[in-house]
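Hi R.,

Here's the chain you asked about this morning:
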Amino acid sequence: MNKKKSKQKSKSKITAQLTLKGKLEVTRSGMGYVIIENVEGDVLVRPGDFNTALNGDTVRVKVIKENMRTGKKEGKITEVVVRKQTEFIGHLQLSTNYAFFIPDTDKPMPDLFIPLSELNGAKNKDRVLARLVKWDNGDKKPVGTIVSIMQPEDENDAAMKELLAQAGFPLSFPEDVMEEAERLPEALDSEEIKKRRDCRDLLTFTIDPVDAKDFDDAISIRKISNGNYEIGVHIADVSYYVHPETELDLEAYKRATSVYLPDRVNPMLPEKISNELCSLRPHEDKFTFSAIFQMTTKGEVKQYWLGKTVIHSDHRYAYEDVQEIIETKKGVHQDEILLLNDIAQLLRKKRFSKGAINFSSQEVRFKLDEKGKPIGVMVKESKESHQLIEEFMLLANRTVAENVAKLKINKKPLPFPYRVHDQPDPAKLAPFIVFAKKHGHTFDTSTPEAIAHSFNSMLLEARGNPEQHVLEQLGIRTMAKAIYTTENIGHYGLAFEYYCHFTSPIRRYPDVLVHRVLQSILEDKPINDKKMEEKCKHSSERERAAMECERAGNKYKQVEYLKDHLGEVFEGVVSGVSSFGFWVETVAHKCEGLVNIVGLSDYDDFRHVESDYSLVGRRSGRTFRMGDKVMIRVVAANLEKRQLDYEWVLGEEDKSEKAKGKKKK
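And the predicted structure, written out as tokens:
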């Protein structure tokens, strides 16, 4: 594992008349603050000095005033560099000669002027999706067009679109992007096939979620003469279709990622590419970029090959199909599936022995009706079928990064989008170690590797015990966030010295960048992209926005689901504690809500013990600690705020103690 620790950049001061780039945050009062990375203090911007900038936009700001005593700065925005959001949901105000769009937002912004030719069938007071198309400095009002009308009965649809729009993800593709996609040929070019390694005669298959349409990875396997196996990881060759600086490329970069909400995918690329040309559908020839390994049955890589290929998928599996084969030892291509699973489990075991951290993962999925309303919640855990794909994708990602890292230009590393994960923050780790010790788990903090091994020992010992969930949740919170950057510091959580994202170019832009750099190296014409770090930062920011959007979408569906269960009692686990109450996550559907401390006042006067992640009753000694099982009643479900309110339901023991007024022993 790379022991190099990333350095915290010190913040510098700025002086008046300097123009810098940053991100505008607009408060509800209408005042703006430009936040500039690695610079001390935000720059205040008054509404009259926004210069067409909106909340979340990347802007250039000129500092015009600075208080030398307090360090407070004021400025004027001189340029909008990148708009965060161009599509908005709101209402149409229509009169005889003109129309205006009034956005539904708590962040002040001007109405959009809508030419009557751009109404797209919308009528007065309709709730609509509008796009900002023009706003020059001299224009008092921005000009927009109506993209679509939100039907009153499609409340779910409107809610999901609003989440995407607020996060800055366009809900539709511009016409020039769609036209460019439509012009791409469906048939594979025969001359291009000749330039590639032909893998069409190899047994090849995909393993994906049952409802997936964008299959961007496939596995092939065959036995070779020396008794070893040739295992291919084949990835959709998006870069063959999406060339740098084309409209498709610029739009994909802007989005940087697909967003997966409970009832839809907001794709990075048009469906013509994501679901058709590049999707590795069964019984179709496809262009791919492959990592092909010669491996023993013990998971040892004897040699590997990286390059462009053409494949033909023989079978499309859902994860459930593969899991059934693993468990029953019966099914289509059972011998190959079982062998791949055995190798994947060996790779997984080796990874953890080298210090990778084994946090278990659970995924909430919703059963939806035809209108997108949740009628059931399922909690899915990672099984061997998921791990089979995961381990071979990790192997390909790591191998590509190691291969690129060898190359130097003028004795300097080639600019490349590594996927890195820093070591835990000691300030976050210290209180967690104290808490873990109360549950009988000790940590060796002598080295980063020792910390990782301590985490794994704790997770193994806690498995199946009441504290498992809380230790996992708190442990994850001590971890740094993985990001894209050209400065490789290794991936701590995976215990890899070199790592990148190579395996999902249909849904992640950094993977497209990785493909381009790798191909340039294979052609002996390495790309020295001076803007690679900027692209990495943008991709990391868009990834965070997508994750927050996905969490908000799940939360909306959970609130919507429990709205039909008001007054019902469920078993839950305390998932967070604060001075004003505690959060509970229901066991059955992983829906988190707040038990307010006000509702506990009839029982006792509770105080917050921060170091113990608990609330403790002053009279009764009753404790609510993270990980405790409790019963709760659903008392409120606010869809607009995506909030659930619970009340604690007293157990029989608690009722008797309350009646007696005695302190619990």
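The longest strand covers residues 301-312.

Let me know if you need anything else.
M.
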